[in-house]
Amino acid sequence: MKQRRFWLGVLISVVCLILVLWRIDYREVLNALAQANYAWLIPAAVPFAATIACKVLRWQLLFPGDHSRISRRNLLSALMISYALNTILPARLGEVARAYVIGESENVSKGLAFSTIVVEKVLDVLTLLLFLVLLLPVVPLPSWIRQSALVMAPLFLCLFAIILALVYQRKRTLAVVRYFVERVPRLDAERLLGSLDVALSGFDALGSLRTNLLLWGWSIAVWATSGLFMLFVMFAFHIDAPPAAAFLLLCVTSLGMTVPSSPGYIGVYHWLVVGTLQIFGVERELALSFAFAVHALTFVPLTLIGIFYMMRENYSLQRIEQEALAKPGG
Predict the structure, then answer these.
(1) Is 31 a residue whose pLDDT tops 60?
(2) Which of 76-80, 154-158, 230-234, 316-320 has the lowest mean pLDDT?
(3) Separation between Cα atoms, residue 271 and residue 250, nearest integer Å
(4) How far is CA 85 from CA 2, 57, 120, 170, 330, in A?
(5) CA distance 322 to 315
(6) Across the chain, which distance is largest between two alpha carbons, in Å?
(7) Is 70 strand, coil or helix?
(8) pLDDT over 90, % of the chain
(9) How far apart are CA 151 and CA 226, in angstroms?
(10) DSSP state, residue 279
């Protein structure tokens, strides 16, 4: 199954690369890269770092009990390692590895850690969909973006509703599960129910109004700072488009990364950037040069920092593949 997903992702990436590179004047692409004002990357580093900080602070809130007992340093380390592995490994397996790493460093259940990541991802998608709604009055969204949002919005709203139901009806959920698992022979029902109970506790943060408000506030901060970073890079490439274009780019590329692709989202990312910027009349060559630059500026530093943390924490790719990916719920 994993191999099929991997080769499907490679196929989609190759198709997107062909579409985005078809009939491109490569001299114009190189010229745009040469003429960019890279001084803008200095202020761009501030929102880039702020995005990471906001993600760490939000993730800390998702752990039940005393949030402060979870080390921000360890959360940052696990997050950076997951970024590196998402670039190296297919199918976003870095998120499974992130649950394993924080579970090891903080001595918490990997199932609990993974459930906090599930909540985080749902919050991210819903926040991006909110941004799209806010962009409707100022940006003429093409049909392919509108239709994608119309499909994703109800799906993730339903998923969020299910998570909330599990928060407030946890005992009833466990009782229903117990009814079925106790009828399965040679199954350790108590151990399974105990693991499920711990995993469901990763949703507990949503049961507090104060924590909910903080989570949504950090989620908006995560994507607002990401949009600001995108805007500064647009300034560097002299792209004549309104600030709303930066946030539309952010929404399209982030939501588009849910599509299977090769590790690092090569091809898919570039095709989405070029297609979105063309809405604002940006020439394909300039849009492609920007896509190459912003992809490198985000993926390369995060990958290198993640590898640094893997070396510092004495994690090897082989160890993570054997221990985390083989037993993701341990």
Answers:
(1) yes
(2) 316-320
(3) 13
(4) 15, 21, 18, 33, 19
(5) 11
(6) 69
(7) coil
(8) 40
(9) 24
(10) G
Which residues 6+ apart lie within 8 Å of 42 measured at CB? none
Encoded tokens for 141: 């969204």
What pLDDT sits at residue 54? 97
Residues 6+ apart with CB under 8 A from 134: none
Report d(CA 236, CA 167) in Å as an integer. 46
Instruction: Kindly report the number of other CB atoms within 10 A of residue 330's CB atom.
Output: 13
**152, 125 Cβ separation under 8 angstroms:** yes
The closest of 299, 298, 297, 259 to 275, measured between CA atoms, is: 259
Tokens of 314: 């004495």
Q: What is the pLDDT of residues 198-240, one digit of tens each?
A: 777 778 888 888 888 999 999 999 999 999 999 999 999 999 9
- Show contacts of 72-77: CB within 8 Å, 24+ apart: 74/102, 74/105, 74/106, 75/102, 76/52, 76/309, 77/101, 77/105, 77/309, 77/312, 77/313
127 touches 223 (CB < 8 A): yes
